[in-house]
Amino acid sequence: MMKSLAKYISKYLLSFSACIIFLLVLNVVCFIATFHSTIMKDYGYTSPQNMLEVVSEASSESGTTAAVQSLLHEHQIWAIYLTQDGETAWSYEAPAELPEHYTIQDIALFSKGYLKDYPVFVWDDEDGLLVLGYPKGSYTKFTTNYFSAKAIQKMPVFLTFLLFFDLALLFAAYFLSKHKIIKNTEPIIASIQTLSEGKPAALAANGELSELASSVNKASQILSRQNEARENWISGVSHDIRTPLSMIMGYPQDETASTSIRKKAQIVQRQSARIKELVLDLNLASKLEYDMQPLRKEPIRLAKLLRSYVAEVLNAGIPENCSLGIFVEEAAEAEQFDCDSRLMKRAVNNLVQNSIGHNPQGCHILILLTCTEETITISVKDDGVGFSADKLKELEEKPHYMDSTDERLDLRHGLGLLLVRRITQAHNGIMTIKSKPNAGCETILSFSTQE
């Protein structure tokens, strides 16, 4: 798998390197194509230096040949020949504003630069000085060299265009590579995310990352088998427990037994009922964990559902030292929420029973229903002993035994809160616990109404 991934990454690094090399070669080609004629003109056969040599070989103090004159005319070059004393021996197509006589200072000034703003180039021989002049603005001259003015004018535009072209091409290569990498890796990342949530995943084992996809599929199959085995085990044990449990719960109802035996039998019956509830909770939590519990969602008035639940609990009876009340905010009175009413009632009941079970000295329990434009909230709070900060941290951080492989049961919290959390998550909600020692406990279930 690592070889496959390394090969995949190397392929894209090599592709990007090849793209950069291609850009460099393309830049050189563009430069040559843009400045070839200028370079050939300035430094080839028709360059000022070469033209000086050609003209000087065919020229003297008395004049130049017709062929040279034709060459000068073709390239828009004028020429003058100065004698040793600075007089103009002859000229060809020289501008009218040029003087006929030049001093040593005049010659010293223009020999390295310009004559009347015309870029000039000079060649001295034993008879005098040959001067070739070019159109104004055709060359930019420095003391040691000369450069084509046209090339200098082109250069900023050329470099700017080349910069933007290179950046555009690099961005296109980056975008296409990124798109292809995301296209190849996104299904694998999504599958790994699915596996991290304990759910099976399946990938098409083909393409460049087929080896990695096969490994993900193999891990998914192992996880599926483990989950299936755990679910079958839980279902089997739950089924096997229910039959003897029904018998145990039936025998304590014998009215012919003595008073002491009946009292003990009532304890057995209550604990058996508790075991039965735990078995049902275990089955339900397991099914919710593996998405095997279908949600029967429908629009429900939560205010009506909660009032109905409170009436059922009060009619069935609760400990004498406990009381149960309900408060529905006016804005939430007619609010409807798409949910599985049976599961929602189960979550609230678990929280109420937790409050009763953790407060043997008694407490007042209040169910609150509130809502805003975005959320609807069910809170179950009591005024009992509450939890310490450490205990609250344990409830938030320590895993339940269905989520952990640790063998120490004292490092895990109970099933009731896990089931509440599972039901809340199944409805895309959030469960929050607030508590302080001797200041009661409040569990808040928040659900979005914007789905």
Outline the structure in words.
- The chain is of the alpha+beta class.
- The chain is 53% helix and 18% strand.
- It contains eleven helices and 16 strands.
- The protein has helices spanning 2-43, 48-57, 66-74, 104-110, 149-196, 210-250, 259-289, 302-316, 341-357, 389-397, 415-426; strands at 59-60, 63-64, 78-83, 88-92, 114-115, 118-124, 128-133, 139-141, 146-148, 298-301, 322-328, 336-339, 363-371, 375-382, 430-435, 441-448.
- A five-stranded antiparallel beta sheet has the order 4-3-7-6-5, with helices on one face. Strands 11-13-14-16-15 form a five-stranded mixed beta sheet. The chain has a two-stranded antiparallel ribbon with strand order 1-2.
- A hairpin with a 4-residue loop joins strand 3 and strand 4.
- Helix 6 (210-250) runs antiparallel to helix 7 (259-289).
- The radius of gyration is 47 Å and the shape is rod-shaped.
- The model is unreliable at 399-413 (pLDDT under 50).
Concise summary:
The protein is built from eleven helices and 16 strands. The protein has 451 residues and is α+β, with helices and mostly antiparallel strands. The model is unreliable at 399-413 (pLDDT under 50).
Unreliable spans are 399-413
Main beta sheet? 5 strands, antiparallel
* Sequence of strands across the biggest β-sheet: 4-3-7-6-5
Report the β-strand fraction as a percent range: 15-25%
| Distance from first to last alpha carbon | 40 Å
Please state the overall shape, judged from the principal axes of the Cα atoms.
rod-shaped
Rg (C-alpha, Å): 47 Å
Mean pLDDT: 78
Structural class category: alpha+beta
- SSE run: HHEEHEEHEEEEEHHHEHEEHEEHHEE
**Total DSSP E strands:** 16
Number of separate helices? 11
Tell me roughly what share of residues is in helical segments. Answer: 40-55%
